[in-house]
Amino acid sequence: MSISLRTARTSRSLGVAFASAALVFGAAGNAMACSIKDFSAVAACDGDKGVIRVTDVDPLGVKAEITVYLENNGADLRMVGSKTIENSTAEGVTVTFEEDWEPNAEYRIHVTAEDYVDEDIKPNLIAPAEDCEKEADTPPAAQGNPEKPAEDKGKDKEQEKDKGEPSRTKTSPTPSAPQGSTATGGSDNNAPSPEGDSNLAETGADSHTGPIAAFAAALVALGAGAVYYSMRRRGASTR
After folding, report:
1. What are the structural domain ranges in the chain?
2. pLDDT level of residue 24 (50, 70, 90 thresholds)
3. Rounded CA gap, 50 and 43, in Å?
4. Do 95 and 83 meet the contact criterion of CB atoms below 8 Å apart?
5. Could you report the per-residue pLDDT of 206-225, keeping only the tens digit for each?
C-alpha cells in the first residue's frame, strides 16, 4: 500500500513544526535557567561597619551556596564566610556578610547552584576607596562645671560689670527742718548753735536780712509821710 504524495507533504510539515517548537521551548528553558549572571555583589556600609551583600535574581529559585574570600595578590588570604540562598525570585534575594573591609580591598565570590553554576562572580569585588566613617567619641562633660546657656552667660557678665562700676545713684538732699522745729534723734534741744550759724542760714537766708527789713520800714514811713503831707495841702486849698 503506497502513501500518497499529499500525505507525505503533510507529515513533513508537521515534523518541521514540532521541531521548531522544540527549539523555541529549549531556548526559553535555557534563558530561564540559573546562571552566574543572576548573581551580583557590592561592598557597602551598615552604619560605621563594612558589609558585603550578594544578591540572587534567579527566577527559578535554585538553591545556591555563596562563599566570599579575601584576596591578596591573586590568592585567597582568608574565607570571610559562606551562606545559602533558597527560593530566590526575579526581584532578588540578598545575603549579607559582616566584613569591616579596608579601602580598595579585593574579594573573590564563588557561587555553587546545583548543576547550573559552579564559578566565581567576575570580575572580583573591589571595596570603595574610602572606609566607613567612624562615629567620633563625644568627650564627657566636666563635672561640677556644667555649660551654661548663652542667656545665663550674658546675665553673669552684666552682673560682673555692675559690680565693677561705682554706683551712679544720686542721693536727694535731705530737707532741713523749718525754723523753730524740734530736732529728733535724741539730740539736745537746748544746745547752742555753732558761732556764726543761724536758723536763717539753714533755710537759705543770709546775714543781710536785718538791714533790708530796716530799709523797707523806712520806705514805708516815708511813703506814709508823703501821703499825709499831700492830704493836708488838699485840705488847705479847699478852704
Report:
1. 1-32, 36-126
2. very low
3. 7
4. yes
5. 556 677 888 888 888 888 88
* Strand-pair category, 64-72 with 49-56: unpaired
Q: How many angstroms separate the first and last alpha carbons of the chain? A: 204
What's the rounded Cα separation, in Å, for the pair 33 and 113? 11
All three cell numbers of 28, joined, read 526559553
Alpha-carbon distance 103 to 100, whole Å?
Answer: 10
For residue range 164-203, what is the model confidence (pLDDT) as tens digits?
555 454 555 555 544 544 444 444 455 555 554 545 445 4
How many angstroms separate the Cα of 110 from the Cα of each of 67, 70, 120? Answer: 5, 12, 4
Computed on alpha carbons and rounded to an integer, the radius of gyration of the chain in Å comes to: 60
Q: What is the pLDDT of residue 171?
A: 52
The answer to whether the CB of 93 falls within 8 A of the CB of 40 is no
Report the alpha-carbon distance of residue 128 to residue 52 in Å, rounded. 11
- CATH number 2.60.40.10 given to 36-126: yes
